[in-house]
Specification:
heterotetramer; A: alpha+beta; five-stranded parallel β-sheet; 15 helices; about 25% strand; globular; C: alpha+beta; four-stranded antiparallel β-sheet
Amino acid sequence: MISKVLIANRGEIALRVILACKEMGLKTVAVHSEADRDSLHVRYADEDVCIGPAPSRQSYLSISSIIAAAEITGADAIHPGYGFLAENAHFAEIASECGLTFIGPTPESIRLMGDKAKARETAKNAGVPILPGSEGPVKTFSDAADVARVIGFPVILKAAAGGGGRGMRICGAEADLQSAFETARSEAERAFGSADVYVEKYLERPRHIEIQVFGDSSGRIVSLGERECTIQRRHQKLIEESPSPAISQDMRQQMGDAAIRLCRTVNYKNAGTIEFLFQDGQFYFMEMNTRIQVEHPVTEEVTGIDMVKEQIRVADGQPLSVPDGDFRLRGHAMEFRINAEDPVTFAPHPGRIREFNCPGGPGVRVDTAAYRDYVIPPHYDSLIAKLIVRGKDRAETLARGRRALDLFIIEGVKTSIPLHRAILDDPRFIGGDFSTKFLDEFQW
Amino acid sequence: MISKVLIANRGEIALRVILACKEMGLKTVAVHSEADRDSLHVRYADEDVCIGPAPSRQSYLSISSIIAAAEITGADAIHPGYGFLAENAHFAEIASECGLTFIGPTPESIRLMGDKAKARETAKNAGVPILPGSEGPVKTFSDAADVARVIGFPVILKAAAGGGGRGMRICGAEADLQSAFETARSEAERAFGSADVYVEKYLERPRHIEIQVFGDSSGRIVSLGERECTIQRRHQKLIEESPSPAISQDMRQQMGDAAIRLCRTVNYKNAGTIEFLFQDGQFYFMEMNTRIQVEHPVTEEVTGIDMVKEQIRVADGQPLSVPDGDFRLRGHAMEFRINAEDPVTFAPHPGRIREFNCPGGPGVRVDTAAYRDYVIPPHYDSLIAKLIVRGKDRAETLARGRRALDLFIIEGVKTSIPLHRAILDDPRFIGGDFSTKFLDEFQW
Amino acid sequence: MAILNFKEILELIDIVAERGIAEIEIEQAGTKLRIQGKPSAPQVIHSYMNGQRDMPMPALPALAASGPVLSAKAQEDETDASLHVITSPIVGTFYRSPNPESEPFVTIGDHVSKGKVICIVEAMKLMNEIESDVDGEIVKVFPQNGQPIEYGEKLFAVRL
Amino acid sequence: MAILNFKEILELIDIVAERGIAEIEIEQAGTKLRIQGKPSAPQVIHSYMNGQRDMPMPALPALAASGPVLSAKAQEDETDASLHVITSPIVGTFYRSPNPESEPFVTIGDHVSKGKVICIVEAMKLMNEIESDVDGEIVKVFPQNGQPIEYGEKLFAVRL
């Protein structure tokens, strides 16, 4: 029985986990760097431990400090949130070895899906559509060229151990392949310690659509429908919604079944997300995230399921609370990531928040650890709030989004609010007709 | 076609109406007293007009000033909110005469239901159960005594024109009847300009349960289920929830049908609420409120209907958006009225709000016009925020309520938050076993 | 112990804000502090830069509450203490004359006595005659003829 | 134009808060202003009165953020400049001796030299020896034997 949860994270997701624990009557332990002494997750947790100086490597990424913090506080479970150590198989292993319940999948699942080539292989064997490309990493340029010729240009080179756009190169013609291959390898080497890259068919105007899955210890696995995450800048999601305006109930079923098949083959536990590229009515496996997503609230709003509480229940050996039978999403939900950054240049803009007034009223949810006079430290990511709006359909959701953004007042730092607001007036966005290229081409 | 709405109110409900208008793309006009110059409803409206000095009689109750404000701004509709002129038939009449759409029922419905004795008569004729009592007002003490003897003590004397507890007297035995009768009459005279009182059977431990109804201009009338409003102090509601822990789906159907019957007989339009007393599996008509209620959000949360937008649509001649067929409430919702008052003595506590931090996360909604540094004027009611929590069932809703209240930070003025928090730990409240006497007997 | 600590300064700022004082100045034990109630424009511009276009920061109201009840425009005219300002007792449309053809009730330079009708404010089709509440000389007419006015809006400035 | 307007005072308060200055004093054109950075206790009590029991008001963190990274308790001990404080480089359990039977590594009055092992911090079943980073005399031992300690927590005070 889990009774005290240590949250190995910071910011809004740490607070989000604390809220879930409070609702379940569980004690909470916050860990924090010296820069986060005065964060709300520290204030609202039952106990808190300073685990290191500001830099993540010496605090939120320090496995030994976090495990030691669990030891001295007597925590019996660890929630990793997202980012930091959330997809670190070694961390999950050590936690278990120290008798701590890791609230997430098994180390094996994390490790397997963390290796993009292996994950792709696994998906293929599970009968999940994948983009045509190399069988695993291509060692030499000529191997890469052979594959590229077969599947046809444009192709994309991806780091096998990668993520977040690093070690990625798009190549439109054979002439550019050599240089692309070499930069991709060296970037991969620098970023992930492994130069392995693989070759894949490149889609010109895909959508990014992901399926939320959940597995429990009885082996039951369910899909909670899709999230539309196509609106991205530099491979960073900015707006997410569910359901996707591009996905029919039948396609939802197909993608959900594919996702479940993949999870079955790895006997997947807890919350996970399968990311697909979607174009011309076809979907292709991209990768699997073995953790809670930043954008999980949109799924919560259309399913009524508290996914973080579900994570904890499932990690505690309880069965999924999701009912059986034909599953449908109810209403529509959209999330706007409010970052402390210049809305035009996307340059981070840390500093003191001088005014902070969240919108309220029907269908509006705000997940944030910020408040008036909070000083955003420069050491971490720039997400300061997630605005989630819900409506009976997409039109009402868009209207709510507009008025909520208009009434969301943040002073003292620049934020992405004006960009979100402009996107909500864009005919293509309103029409649901967009691809991952949307923001590159967006004029405002 | 409504295109510009004047909101003849202040505070959170004025802001709530503005949010609805913004979502519908309608222009808004705020009216305000000199004391409310810097209220958010003034800031967020497209236009604003100062209509008088702080005292309500000279501003928010001044029909001529409000109509004149509509004239000079070219508003074509008026939303009265709740309180102030919301149930003033004369105001509704003048608005229509001036070519303004009154967003509410007809003056006739308002007038009829505003007269408690007439309303009771109407309910009786519509076959809606009423408490045994006098046929209309009792003119003399002996008439009152005759009725009381027939229906048996205890009885309650109520002002025919009354509301909010004034002109009300409970009488346990015949010996006390004379004095009770005279005080009730003189109170009624003072409060409402009419000394008429009627006699009714008095229930010892009733629940206060109300049914939300909605009618459109096609004559279609629907019920949106009940709200449990039993937790009151001095006849002022403090906590409301839907569904009620005391009402079965069958009873919901019965009460809904009764409410609809009543509305049919008066050809009721727009939003209305029928208040019932409920005891021992029986329900009795108490009164009808011909306006939006403070507690409308709990119904919005379990039905997914934006009731204020629905009010505007219906007033604009459009049909109800509520689908036909077997109607069920989804999940559970609860509202906590956060008043600026001493939680023990209930003495109002106006002043400057020095800290204001609203809770967020899943299932939490806050309707408020307050903000950090807002100065609560002493001239109006003490409601500064409504905290609404939603969950898949009552247990989750209670858990959310606790953690949301724990994280709702208001400094500088005393609030009812600690009282709400204490109620959420009370076994009888948790068990759903309470009557309108709950707060009188509540120890904390 | 500081002569003026953070909390005490806050107190002062609040008092300035709540009482609607334009400026206060304190001199005590060689300490001199002055606070002005009027919020400074740059904050609004900042608000614009953050893309909150017509949206003032929520603290502004509380600060604006510090200003006198009259509008900013009004404040300038307050400077001359010998001027009395007649404000509108009702909401409506301002007319300087009983009908379009006729002369205005008063013009600048006219001497008016208490009780003289100086304009009409139309509300709900009713022509409400507004009388001067002082004796003096009209030195300024604030609204344009036919202009909508709200309660408390300045109509005339009268030199006593 | 005021010598100190509201905005400038806010600036000052922010500077005090952000730089973690305990107190500043300004004298300019006969104006003298002093602001203390430490938030005052009464606000917390107030917070309690409002029933927000363990709930500090959200502004407090931001103000506290102004304070030095050391805890309030730490600050007192900072007063003596000749004292050097050795803090824990890791999270774990503090032990003064290698095992329950043996003598503590150091006791008050001992002279230690840079590099001498002065205690053990156990983390993940590992005994981490902590060495003195200065030469001097141990004048204070902050944690109790066997007490859990966090990163940066004070272990010993050493007189240089």
